[in-house]
Amino acid sequence: MLSITLYFSGASSPELTRVETSSGNVTRISVRGKTEGASKAQGTFQWSSAVKSLAILLLRHCAQESNQTLDKDATLSGEKGSLACSLDYALSKQPLWLLDMFGTDSKGKNLLRTFLQISNSSLKYPGPVIIRVNEKRLPPEEITVFLEDQKIDCSNELATLARMISSGIRSKIELTQVKKTPPLEDNTYPFPFNDPFWFSILKKLFLHETLRTLEETDIFNTSTLQNALRFMETHEDFLYITGRRFALTDIIDRHLTSAQRLGMHPNDFLKRSLMPDSEPFRITLTPAHVGSLALLKYLTKEEKLPLDIDYHHFNTDDVLAFVSTQTHSTPPDAMILTVATAADLLRKGKKLQYRPLMVMPQNSYRVMSPASERGVCDAGIGDYFFISDNPSTSQFYFKELSRNGVLQKSKIKTHHIHQDEIPALFRNNVESLRTILWFPYDRFNQIFDSAMFLDCPAYSSYVNEILFIHESHFANPTRLLSLNILIRDAWLKLKSYPRLLEQTIDLLLDNPDYLSMLCRAGGLHNFTKSQIQAAKEKHRERSSCEDGILQNFLHNPRVAEQTFTA
After folding, report:
1. C-alpha gyration radius of the chain
2. What is the DSSP letter of 391?
3. Any long-range contacts for 185-189 (C-beta under 8 Å, 24+ apart)?
4. Residue 545, class by beta-carbon neighbours within 10 Å (0-12 exposed, 13-18 middle, 19+ buried)?
5. Which residues pair with 118 in a beta bridge?
C-alpha cells in the first residue's frame, strides 16, 4: 500500500513544496529546489508542468473520499501541450525527480506508474490522454494534504486547491477550522445529520461515549482483566449456551511482556508483520461498536495499517449470521462480538473456525421508557421489547437485571423486536413500554422522541466485547501479537490525548456511508421531520452549554464526564 503526504505553501497562489511517500517500510522525502539543503530529503523537484499535473491529479483523487459526486472530475484529460500530456511524458521518460519521489518496482519501473490508469498514452490515437488514479491500489484516504501547515480534509477545499493550481488564479482558500460541519440540506449526509446542529451533537455524543468505553474497559491492569474474564467465562448465561467454559482471550494475549501489555513496541517491526500480504486484513463489526471503531480508524489513518473495516451489520447477531451462512467468497479475517454472541459462536465449536484473541472496548446498554408526566418510571414492571430470538446481549442484560432483583417477574412481559423498530413503538407513548437499547440508538430515542433512561443501579450498563480471529491466522502468531500490541497502543493514545481522540471521531463521522448505517440501524426513518424539528427547538437552547462541555472535555475529560452523565 502506498501513502502520500503533500505539503503546499502560499494560500493565495499555492505551490507544492514537499512530498512524503511511504510504501511498506520505506519512506521517501522530496523537497522543492535544486538541492536538499538542511531538509534531510532523498530527492528534489522543480515546480514544473509535470509536477503541477501530478499535484492536481492527486488532489482531485483525494477530494473523492467524502464526496463521491466529484468522481467525474477526478481525472486529468487533454491533448498535446496539456497537463495530462506533461505527466504522461514524465511517466514514460522516468526523470530522476519521479524516481526519487516514489522509487521503483522490482523491474526498475517507476512505482507511481503502477498506481495510475492511463488511456491513449503518448497520443497514439486521436483524442486526449486521460489519467486516473487506480482507487483500488491507492484509496483517496491514503493521501494527506497540508496547506500552510494546516491539514485539509474537506472535499470542497481540496477541489478548490486543485482548481487554483490548474488555472493559476490567485485567490484565498478559507480553510475549515472545525472539521465536518456539513452544509444544510447537503445530500451527501443522511437526514437528520445533514443539519450542522445535529451533526455537532452527534460528534459530542461520540466523543463522550468513546472516552467512557476506553476508560471503563481496563485491559492494562492484569488482575482487573483476569477478574473480568473470570466473571464472563463462568457466568451462568454464558455456560448455559456454550455447555462448558471457554477462554475469551488467547495465550498470545495472556503472555504479553510488561511493555507489550502497555502497547510499547518497535513500531516499524510490528507494522511490517501486519503487511506481508497484498490483501487487507478484514474486520467485521457493527456500527455501534464505537470504541473499537475508533481504535481501528486510528490504526488505518495514523499508523497506515491495511485494515478493511466492515460495519455493515445492524447488530452482532447479524455479524454472526453473516459468517455462519458463508455466502461470501472468503470469510472475514476477524470480527468483534459481544459476550452473548461470542457464547453462541463458541457453542458452534470448530464449525466457524474463529478463536478469541483479546478484549475490546465495552458498549453501554440502557433500559428506556416513554417520557412520563410523572417524571419517574419503574424499570421493574412493564412490557419489555428487545432482540430475543437468538442469544443476544439485550437478552443477557435482561436476565442479569432479573437476577439482581431489578425486575418483578410477575409484572413483566417480554416481546421480540429489532432495535430499528423501537422508535415506532415510542410514538404510541404506551406507559408500560420498556426496552433495552445500546449506544447510540438509546441516545437517538432520547433526543428525537424524548424517551427516558431508567435507573438500574444494581447492574453495570457496560457489556464486554471480544475480538475473534480466523483460525488460519494463528499459524502466524507474530502477526497476531503485533495486532494486539498496536491495538493497545492506539487505546492508550486515544485515552491519553483528547485532541487525538477528537480527530479520530472526525474521521469516523465524516463518512456518509457510516452515518447512513447508523440512521437505518437506529430506525431514524421512523421519526418524522416535525419530530426532528421539535427536538431541535428543544435542544437548541442547550447548544451553547454543550459547546462549553465539549471544550471542557477536551481539556479535562474526566471532569466533563460528570456533566455529560448528568
Report:
1. 26
2. S
3. 188/66, 188/67, 188/68, 188/69, 188/512, 189/512, 189/515
4. exposed
5. 131
